[in-house]
Write a structure and sequence with these properties.
With 331 residues, the chain is an alpha/beta fold. The chain is 44% helix and 19% strand. The protein contains 11 helices and 10 strands. The protein is globular. The structure holds S-adenosylmethionine. S-adenosylmethionine (SAM) binds next to α6 and β2.
Length: 331
């Protein structure tokens, strides 16, 4: 039986109210307080040194919530609502959580690309809050070993708490993902890429795609190279990239790098209406690392996605993508 939607609201309220209590008492940001509160809920205890009256108030809120009565998707969505609320306070565009509809759509693409694999290794090198990875884990029956790398302290705490609350084992590394990471090559990399300049020129020099013409290299280029390096042969990269990725002087190097090392499976442009500013619009880019298992599709999947809220157009698009997979991938 599908639990009623009202429960998401109930869980959101408990997270929100308890986060506000901790925010006030400990003078934290809402997002840090939310991470603390989520950890309390998971451990069924108040882990911070707070006034005994505050502790009682918090325990009362946690006692009203029985996590095992919620599905993982309900927990993800309630947590997502609270994070969105916190992100309204202050967040850089590069730290934004991957939107729910995109997470669900990438989960669908992930399943389509990995039908033949009952178990696999998955990495997100820009893990953020883990919204993207946990959505994928919630929509699969595969045995997945998941890894995440994230440099931001608050986001990785939220990511850690979110995966705990959903009972997913995700191995997380708090570090710069462009420096060496200690994860063996994986079958799939998913990532909503950070976009802009990467300040560490010394690390950038280790990448073929470092700039020779600008002050700093593009982080979104280095991430593509990093992803290809960490995939097994025939492995897939499913990334959210800026629409302007292939424009400008440096794009030639990126195109050559991709041609040498990977096969372009698809480029799916997200609806512009999803973005406050067209300059920040993104697409979903799918690559397969070259290798014996890799197969060049007759034609890459190139589409402009309709608005996710347009059910009819979306269902037509899914049929089109399903049939593209039949002709090009499951041959
Ligand atoms: N998919 C994530 C989610 O659902 O929350 C959102 C990813 S967000 C668009 C990009 C993330 O990349 C941010 O969380 C940012 O902190 C992280 N990031 C940026 N540069 C990084 C680096 N060098 N190493 C690791 N993470 C980095």
């Amino acid at each position: 039986m599908v639990p009623p939607v009202i429960d998401i609201e109930k869980l959101f309220q408990a997270l929100d109210e308890s986060a506000n209590i901790l925010k006030e008492e400990l003078h934290l940001s809402y997002l840090d307080a939310l991470a603390e509160s989520g950890e309390n809920l998971f451990q069924n205890a108040v882990l911070q040194g707070v006034h005994s009256f505050t502790e009682k108030r918090l325990l009362k809120k946690y006692e009203e919530i029985h996590l095992n009565q919620f599905s993982n998707e309900q927990i993800r969505k309630a947590f997502q609502l609270a994070i969105l609320k916190g992100m309204k306070e202050a967040v850089q565009p590069n730290h934004e959580m991957t939107p729910d509809a995109v997470c669900l759509f990438i989960s669908y693409l992930f399943e389509k690309l990995t039908v033949s694999k009952p178990s696999l290794r998955l990495l997100d090198p820009a893990y953020g809050t883990g919204n993207l990875v946990t959505a994928i884990l919630n929509h699969t029956n595969k045995a997945i070993r998941a890894y995440g790398v994230e440099v931001d302290e608050t986001l990785i705490k939220l990511g850690f708490v979110g995966s705990n609350l959903q009972k997913h084992e995700v191995e997380l590394f708090k570090q710069d993902a462009l420096q060496p990471i200690f994860v063996d090559d994986v079958d799939v990399i998913v990532s909503d890429l950070p976009v802009g300049y990467y300040p560490n020129d010394i690390v950038a020099k280790d990448y073929e795609l470092h700039t020779t013409t600008m002050d700093h290299s593009f982080i979104h280029y280095l991430y593509i190279e990093k992803a290809i390096r960490h995939l097994k042969e025939g492995g897939y990269f499913i990334g959210m990239i800026p629409n302007f990725m292939f424009t400008g002087e440096e794009a030639k190097n990126l195109n050559n790098f991709i041609k040498q090392n990977a096969i372009i499976i698809g480029l799916l442009q997200l609806p512009l209406s999803m973005f406050k500013n067209e300059k920040h619009a993104k697409s979903i880019f799918i690559l397969q690392k070259k290798g014996d298992e890799a197969q060049i599709p007759k034609q890459a999947l190139l589409v402009d996605l309709p608005s996710f809220s347009n059910k009819q157009a979306m269902s037509g698009m899914i049929q089109r993508i399903d049939s593209w997979f039949k002709t090009n991938i499951y041959k």
